[in-house]
């Protein structure tokens, strides 16, 4: 379980600061994951009130959840600790969200029917619909999950205003393999943090390139660079949190795909160009963070180049790679303002001058400068935003918080540059 920004899973330290979450557990073996989820929510700054059904208490004790949440657990509507004897009202009025994890097939059916004969479903029914969102994390055997009754109930829950989080796929406690596992605590945390983020890119389709490219010399050697891909992955996550549909074209990196993001893996600059050419057709925002190799070997040997014993070094010739960002920025969509292009500049010195010149050369409305050796492989960075109006410095911070700030800056600029007729069509 990670609670750091360094791999962009889970959350940053205070992503949920000030949020009060009612964590409801219904009966299922996935209750064991809820202990860790409770802890993760608290580490992310939330306060957590646990409510359990009788069935949940068969799988994990209220003592465990009380110790982890630092609050007595509620499990009965007849709880005499509440002076007005209305636990269902009091608990739901205090919540910023109710999260049912695990949400069993039976509990989903109870929510759909509006049942109120035990505390957890009673509380869900009694919550003020417009103020207290309900999120459910289904957990059950794959046949139960696939059953038309469950699928029908889940669709009805969504129609009733609940947010149904996904399920995991894999080996289940029953010994079968398929869809229906509860998401892991890190995944749930990422989804909950995203849920609370302002949807400043709602309706946008964002395409991001990230990582290095690898230009093969022969089957065992190649040219690449030190880009870790972390900034681009953080931007993909932040854009998805902001409500965008996100596609991430990634060079060879070993980072986990942010939740809800479509990832396309590529190797060379020319693979990246091919993928971007296709994906940019549907995009409304293009953010080029990839450290694309400027050159590739003019010829790739199909066999490993061997030393011949003469002491002679191989004579490598290079060809320049296409500039992916400049190519996209020249497309009709970009030139008419339907595709907002953002470039990055990795410099070693004179950041402002070099980045300003690069923005003009690449013909993009926004260019983000950073110092290469200060960012490659690191979890923190500092950015300098350059547009037609001037420059804005974003001081050193985690890449995820910089990514969120950048997403807001992009949204603000798009609101300004979007032609009026587009705004009318979109409203
Ligand atoms: N870029 C690209 N395709 C390339 C080279 C760069 O899409 N073949 C994009 C990068 O993703 C980044 C921006 O262009 O958004 C600037 O990349 P950078 O490496 O800083 O600049 P270069 O254009 O390579 O110029 P130089 O190396 O001379 O600074």
Question: Can you describe this structure?
Answer:
The protein is built from 17 helices and 19 strands. Strands 12-11-8-13-16-17-18-19 form an eight-stranded mixed sheet, sandwiched between helices. It has a five-stranded parallel sheet with strand order 2-1-3-4-5, sandwiched between helices. Strands 6-7 form a two-stranded antiparallel ribbon. Mean pLDDT is 93; it is low at 1-8 and 419-427. The chain is α/β, with parallel strands linked by helices and 427 residues long. Residues 209, 269, 288, 290-292, 294, 321, 323-325, 343-346, 358 line the site of cytidine-5'-triphosphate (CTP).
CATH architecture type of the largest domain: 3-Layer(aba) Sandwich
Q: Count of DSSP helices?
A: 17
Q: Report how far apart the termini are.
A: 41 Å
Instruction: Work out the helicity level.
Output: 25-40%
Ligands in the model, by name, code or SMILES, are: cytidine-5'-triphosphate
Topology:
Layout: E1 20-25, H1 31-43, E2 47-52, H2 56-59, H3 62-69, H4 87-94, E3 97-103, H5 105-113, H6 119-126, E4 134-138, H7 142-146, H8 148-159, E5 163-164, E6 168-171, E7 177-181, H9 185-196, E8 205-210, E9 215-218, E10 221-223, H10 230-241, E11 245-250, E12 262-265, H11 269-279, E13 285-288, E14 295-297, E15 318-320, H12 324-329, H13 332-335, E16 340-347, H14 351-362, E17 366-371, H15 372-375, E18 380-387, E19 390-398, H16 399-417, H17 420-426
Parallel strand pairs: 1-2, 1-3, 3-4, 4-5, 8-11, 8-13, 11-12, 13-16, 16-17
Antiparallel strand pairs: 6-7, 9-10, 14-15, 17-18, 18-19
The structure holds cytidine-5'-triphosphate.
Cytidine-5'-triphosphate binds at residues 209, 269, 288, 290-292, 294, 321, 323-325, 343-346, 358.
